[in-house]
Amino acid sequence: MKFHNLLIKWYLQNKRDLPWRKTVNPYHIWLSEIMLQQTRVAQGMPYFFSFTEEFPTVFDLANADEQKVLKLWQGLGYYSRARNLHKTAQYIANDLNGVFPATYNDLLKLKGVGEYTAAAIASFSYNEAVPVVDGNVFRVLSRYFDIESDIALPATKKEFTTLAKELMPKNNPAIFNQAIMEFGALQCVPKNPNCYVCVFNISCLALQKKKVDFLPVKSKKLKITNRFFNYLILEDVLVNTLIQKRTSKGIWHNLYEFPLVETDEIVDFDFISKTIQDGILSSYTVKSIEECSYATVIHKLSHQHLHIQFWKIKIDGIIPNGVNYSDLKTFPFPIAIYNFIEKEEICR
């Protein structure tokens, strides 16, 4: 039996019931693909339902305020995806009259849409015979065909794309793409796959050669940067606090946070006290400083580990444009800060 026949047969028997598989609407498929970039299906699904309920069409998303989009995205991470999503919705609504591009090459021109996402939309919505190649596909094909090419190299991406296109049935590319991704997600998993119940266990070269645990080959290691954030939680006589918008490029762009002191290492009370006295809060009279040791957290991003400490600082007087604690949760925050706010709310 041909590879694609066996794969599709397995898929039809084992596929998960996912909402974006029940439609060819490019808006819904685009939303799901952007949300599932570097995100597990179980985590992304509630966001998919929230977005499609709040923004039923691309016009609704385009007309929304960015802050509302970021707030709804809160906790999903990689916030540049949400900003690109919003800008692309505006482009499709305003420049393309709400009609998504219908070909792979034209989809690639959209902001935030790469080769994988363009291939997914083109095949799922328009049945274009273009293969999707992601981590799941690399893993399945490298193991089945015993391919040791380094998947960190651009040339390897072309090699696997060519192979996937050769395997793909031209009359039904959508189901092949869905099947190979699902097979990698459920059966041919990264660690400890159950090869003895696999439909390919007779023909898989990696299993025959006892190389399943060594494939795919990926040489490039991601360098992790450690950063140290100290958030100052001000509280004035009205029990209002101070927040600010992150406008510089980088992580959490356009999200809100408390006043921040970034340091080179974890710091103690004396350092924060001296920093405040030396002018960072010179316009306020500080009454007390307290470290919220219970809230200290290491927030892990793909390329950065953020060591976050929170410091409560009570001040005399009134904070101009201060925000009441009851209103804080209406702003879009990084999830690490939002979790702190929720803890504080419970304690009040």
Automatic annotation (TrEMBL):
Q: Which GO terms describe its molecular function?
A: 4 iron, 4 sulfur cluster binding; 8-oxo-7,8-dihydroguanine DNA N-glycosylase activity; adenine/guanine mispair binding; metal ion binding; oxidized purine DNA binding; purine-specific mismatch base pair DNA N-glycosylase activity
SUPFAM superfamilies, A to Z: DNA-glycosylase, Nudix
Question: What Pfam families does the entry give?
Answer: HHH, HhH-GPD, NUDIX_4
- Say yes or no: keyword Hydrolase present: yes
Q: Which reaction does it catalyse?
A: Hydrolyzes free adenine bases from 7,8-dihydro-8-oxoguanine:adenine mismatched double-stranded DNA, leaving an apurinic site
Q: Which UniProt keywords apply?
A: 4Fe-4S, DNA damage, DNA repair, Glycosidase, Hydrolase, Iron, Iron-sulfur, Metal-binding
Question: Which segments constitute the HhH-GPD domain?
Answer: 35-186
Matches recorded under InterPro entries: A/G_AdeGlyc_MutY (IPR005760), DNA_glycosylase (IPR011257), HhH-GPD_domain (IPR003265), HhH_base_excis_C (IPR023170), HhH_motif (IPR000445), MIG/MutY (IPR044298), MutY_C (IPR029119), NUDIX_hydrolase-like_dom_sf (IPR015797)
Q: Name one GO biological process term.
A: base-excision repair
Q: Does the keyword DNA repair apply?
A: yes
Record text on cofactor binding = Binds 1 [4Fe-4S] cluster.
Q: What does this protein need as cofactor?
A: [4Fe-4S] cluster
Enzyme Commission code(s) on record? 3.2.2.31
NCBIfam families in the record: mutY
What is the annotated role of this protein in its UniProt record? Adenine glycosylase active on G-A mispairs. MutY also corrects error-prone DNA synthesis past GO lesions which are due to the oxidatively damaged form of guanine: 7,8-dihydro-8-oxoguanine (8-oxo-dGTP).
Stated family: Belongs to the Nth/MutY family.
List the protein's name. Adenine DNA glycosylase
Native source species: Flavobacterium hydrophilum
